What we know:
The structure holds two protein chains of two kinds. The model of chain A is unreliable at 127-156, 168-189, 313-342, 543-554, 735-757 and 892-901 (pLDDT under 50). By secondary structure, chain A is an alpha+beta fold. Chain A contains 38 helices and 35 strands. Chain B has a single domain, classed as CATH 2.40.50.180. In chain B, a hairpin with a 2-residue loop joins strand 2 (17-25) and strand 3. Mean pLDDT of chain B is 79; it is low at 1-14 and 156-161. The chains are: A alpha+beta, B mainly beta. The A-B interface holds A 362, 365-366, 604, 652-654, 696, 699-702, 705, 707-708, 711, 713, 717-721 and B 45, 47-53, 56, 58-61, 64, 66, 68, 95, 97, 99, 152, 154-155, 158.
Amino acid sequence: MDDLLNEFLTETGESIDVVDVELVKLEQDPNNKEVLDNIFRLVHTIKGTCGFLGLPRLESVAHASENVLGKFRDGELQVSEHAVTVILESLDRIKEILAGLEATEEEPEGDDSDLIARLDAIAEGAEAAPDPEPDTVEGEIVEPTLGRPLKAGEVSLEELEAAFANAPGPEEMAAEAPAPASSGGGAAGGSLFDRVGGEDTLAVAAHLISQRLGGDSELSKFFAGTAADLRKGQFMGLMMAIFKDDIDAADNVARQIVTVSGFNDQHFDTLITLIKDVLVECQVDSDVADEAVMSFELVREGVVSAAKALAKAPTNKAGTASGASAGGAAASSAPASEQKRTSQSIRVSVDLLEDLMNMVSELVLTRNQLLQITRNMDNSELGVPLQRLSQCTTELQENVMKTRMQPIGNAWAKLPRIVRDLTVELDKKIELDMRGADTELDRQVLELIKDPLTHMVRNSADHGIETPAERMAVGKPEGGTIVLNAYHEGGHIIIEIKDDGRGISVSKLSSKILEKKLASEAELADMSDGQIQKFIFHPGFSTAEKVTSVSGRGVGMDVVRSNIEKIGGTIDMVSIEGKGSTFQIKIPLTLAIVAGLIVKAQDERYAIPQISVLELVRASENSEHKIETIKDTPVLRLRNRLLPLVYLNEVLGFMSRDEIDARENVDDFIVVAQVGAFTFGIVVDQVFDTEEIVVKPMAPILKDLEIYSGNTILGDGSVIMILDPNGIAAKANSGVGDHEREEEDERAQVRRAAAEEKESMLLFRAGGKNPKAVPLALVARLEEVEVNTIEMSDGRYMVQYRGALMPLIKAHPDMNLRTEGRQPVLVFTDREYTMGLAVDDILDIVEEELNIKLASDKQGVVGSAIISGKASEVIDVSYYLNLAFADWLRSRNVADDTVSTKGASLLLIDDSDFFRSMLKPVLRVAGYEVKAVSSAAAALKLMEDGYMFDLVISDIEMPDMNGFDFAAAIRDGSKWENVPLIALSALATERDVNRGHAAGFDDYIAKFDRETLLRSLAQQLKIKGDAA
Amino acid sequence: MNDIVVRDDLSLVRTGTQDFVTVVLAGQTLGIPVLSVHDVLNPQQITRIPLAPSWVSGVLNLRGKIVTAIDLRQRLGLPPLEKGKQSMSVVVEHKDEPYSLQIDTVGEVLSLDDADFERNPVTLDTRWREVSRGIYRLENKLLPILDVDRLLAFESNGKAA
Lengths: 1028, 161
């Protein structure tokens, strides 16, 4: 079955069962807000998911119920028995549809209009009073005190209703219940035990019962799990307890006799009949037998509820296997399907799995230790049991790992959609071929590769695949193909992303490498095409020139690479110009246990993750492989290539280079490691073997040491460090001394501290040498416009863009548009206005603190800022928009009166880094001074420190102190009592808005609604100004 | 291994006295609140970590857990232990991470009266003042009390030390 559907069934099944219980609670306590909210939320979720999965029948029923619940919640309707009944009925309908869905994977046919009409009627308030008609079906369905209305099952509504019509009403049920109690009480006087015939008779009877149960077609399955002897004992005990009137003991025993879920009242009836027959056979007087059987009613509740609990236990999902003789047809089919679903999947908390994983890791360690010890013992008796322990441990480890495994298809799920959207947007024909979607890998790894994968597929679609016209021209089929392929290979997962597009042009790439000064011309000349192509993984190699709306917005392949390397994976690429590119990602199956190569340097052992080790080479003076030096750089000739080397002793600071060179009779081992495209050799003193090691993270105070990725405990109990080849490569590449490194660390720290204040800026050049900058958040798209499509109209440049005429403004009056080729254009969009800003070159996207040093009088410039070490003018987008649209500013002025509020200081409180950095430039460019903090507590601290703001914008959902509490705190006579407060929240229903106003917010605005926010800011500031 | 394990759940009756484990470091006796001590270990095999800060002497294996060993002598600006002698460890926890403080020897557990407690004298070496909660006046000597959290708060002052 479809995984999604399966999960939906499990989850909805759970929700429904909770709602069932909660509804009954609600009915008894109609004013319990908590219960009501819970029900509403659950039903809402069901509705939402149904809509998402395209299940119209379910959705409509859930929707109608939600309506009624919504009215309850808002206090528009009183919770009435009738309404609850109908809602319960709708839940049963949902269960019924779910059952059909599970059996056929399709929504069963059926008409719910009647039910929906009744729900709607209640929602309208028409039938708020209990249904006066006594003979309607729904009036009888639920006996509230029973708390279990209908059974789910794969039967049509008609059958179900017919069954209900024939079923005994609640009155009959009620009459039945007290009867056994009284008869049980009556039996107490004359000691039923003696009258039945004492222990001997019971022993015989128990034996017979036990045997017959085994043969009874209906009941045998419930008792199959218990051995006949045990069963006999159980019944013996049960009867003794019941007949001796020891109700507590009887109840205890009774709860244990059924070990299989699905045992319901009906089965109990059958069981009782069977017992009665046996008793009569054992020469028990038929009146006494009757009485005895009656007394069994005392344990009916216990047996049935125990059976129900059984059904619940494994999945936390209440079984519907219960009920009176009503709806027999439904009941018989329900337990079967229920069991099926139960056995298919169990939801277990991830924490539990993590714990389990940790325990297994420890077990593996201990096993390794034991193995190590016995290895040194001859003829040990431990050998054989240890062998078995070892085997079990391995299997256990594998199985526990499996529980954490998820098919990689989960990470691909949204790719077809992305590719489809891209084909439309880019006007290309692309087919996405996904193979090996059921290849499983650790969920932790899965989460981490999701984004890189998406990014790479986007890249392939955007940059890789050509337009149909281009493809035809080079003789390729019109439609391009992107193949995603995942498979296992030796403890690793290989994921390939292959396209048959244009490939990566070495010549273009080379010129860009030179332009970025990443390598010199001479260096490039020495490189193979493959090496040059691998520069796309180089940090700082932003493909800004190719930026489009789809990809290339600052997330380069270097980010992809570092993400993959973070999880111990590697990425490789082969690209043939004109033929296409293939990316290959190799990642470990799991992060917790890896194979590590144990090496030695200066009497200490270290582990190197096996995944980055390509081969081992032994080098000595006399052997074929010899370490040579070019000036001071050690290299190794390896199959006609020069391999740069790093001495581990030197990297770790054990020895200086002079000491290394001074050694005599050296016999070095070289571990050839690959980090991304960089292959190098690590020279170690000795190589031991490969061991499975359990990676333990470094202590927080040692996290800064980049050359270690963790530590581990070896089989002999000693702790060793796991080397991170990335860190070693970085250290080797940088070639800087320790002193410089420290400085670099400090700089890095400063950078980290400032990271929060950083903004992405787009750098471009237009007229003049100095770069200009604009916050990336303001740029809608980056385009390249064919120069010959630029037209003059009304003395202005225009270009046809997305089916409309877009004015094109030169970013600098002195600059000239290109005369041929393509003109780079930044597209800005504000409401219905779209304009293009023609620039000379798009330079780069940088993360910088937006610190405008000099305000400018010059039109079109907000001020100057130092970006990437250069003075750059930050342009004022509104100026250009105004140039493009004479009516733009006017519409603005009328709408929000921004001009008068320029320079006001704002405090922005939001716990989301993303949101803060998105909103800040928007507000700054609108002319406000913005201070952003991440929590209400930080804001209150500012208040205590004496800060004053003209206005405060606060998020609602924040950890620790939410927006409502914050507003209440501010409004409660604080220093900021009179500062206008604007709430900004993703939750913006009417109720939330009202709550916001009640808490003291002056306005309440939905997140992402920039227009309203700016307007409201202006309004609130104006109100404040007027009042002052 | 003669581990003395003091568990968190040993509740202390607050009667104006507090219990401290005393440790000796270069002749100076120091007190560590008994409740923050998880284990006391005999000399252990410690794996060095090249390139780590000097006050980190390495990592050790404590029943399958990796514990970072802190060279208390280095941390407090004392000369290193003479060659041939081995350090004992007092395992404490800081922010859910176990750390082992390398000390010369462990003394006894003392129950000290609050009345004998005094704040750090202003003239105390800054490095000591930073990590000392205060001083207990004992009959024959003075006992500075280590503040384990401040001692291990490397995030803020790690570079300086």
